[in-house]
Design goal:
ten-stranded mixed beta sheet
Length: 227
């Protein structure tokens, strides 16, 4: 069957048209991989532990203490824990305001100024360790920024598993005044599929060679209180 522009579709009744109804005509040329590449542009999605302080959890739109894969305003629920391959790390400082400013050179004045700003409560500034992660369950690369005080304390556990499988979950932290949850990293013994070699090399090259700083025009989604 060839497409002549005159295909007659069944009457729409609220159900999707079945592809077999139009014979062998190829309707969709590009795959989901191409679609995701167009959405993300030059940015990888980020992995984030969604605690009770996050706006989506406060609004009842996302389960508390679940991990989310975040791209733009899309939050994909990955569950209470997620198996990952820890690939690489880099320094990162980020300041959120009318613009989102990120710095990757830990010796730069910009990086140090964001570090200093982060000591002030509710400053919108964070600094710490950003990891390049492979998510075998959904076969995607992402970043994982450990920029709060409690996340930075756990960051060495992630670094200790560079090139290895790990499981990210959460742990309860209590003080006399507050209780919150923070990331936890442990060993993972579950076998999983590795990324394609070419894609792996491409993402490692991009991750290891960022601009010293970058500015995003659109503000990032609201963040949780740094703890």
């Amino acid at each position: 069957m060839t497409f002549d522009g005159n295909i007659s579709f069944p009457a729409f009744s609220g159900d999707l048209v079945k592809m077999e109804d139009i014979g062998n005509t190829s309707v969709q040329k590009f795959d989901d991989k191409a679609f995701d590449a167009m959405r993300s542009g030059s940015y990888l999605p980020r992995l984030q532990l969604m605690t009770s302080n996050s706006e989506k959890c406060k609004a009842g739109e996302f389960p508390i203490n679940h991990y989310a894969l975040v791209l733009d305003q899309s939050h994909n629920d990955l569950g209470l824990s997620v198996d990952v391959l820890v690939i690489a790390w880099r320094p990162k400082a980020m300041s959120i305001g009318d613009q989102v400013v990120s710095a990757y050179d830990h010796e730069s004045e910009l990086f140090k100024s964001i570090q200093e700003k982060a000591e002030q409560p509710n400053s919108g500034a964070m600094w710490g360790y950003e990891y390049l992660i492979w998510l075998p369950g959904i076969k995607k690369f992402c970043t994982f920024f450990m920029g709060s005080k409690s996340a930075r304390r756990e960051a060495p556990q992630v670094k200790a598993r560079l090139g290895k499988a790990a499981t990210l979950s959460s742990k309860k932290i209590e003080t006399s005044s507050f209780t919150w949850f923070a990331p936890k990293c442990s060993d993972c013994s579950t076998p999983f599929e590795m990324p394609e070699r070419e894609a792996f090399a491409h993402e490692v090259e991009r991750f290891n060679n960022p601009a010293k700083s970058e500015v995003e025009v659109a503000p990032a989604p609201a963040t949780t209180r740094a703890q």
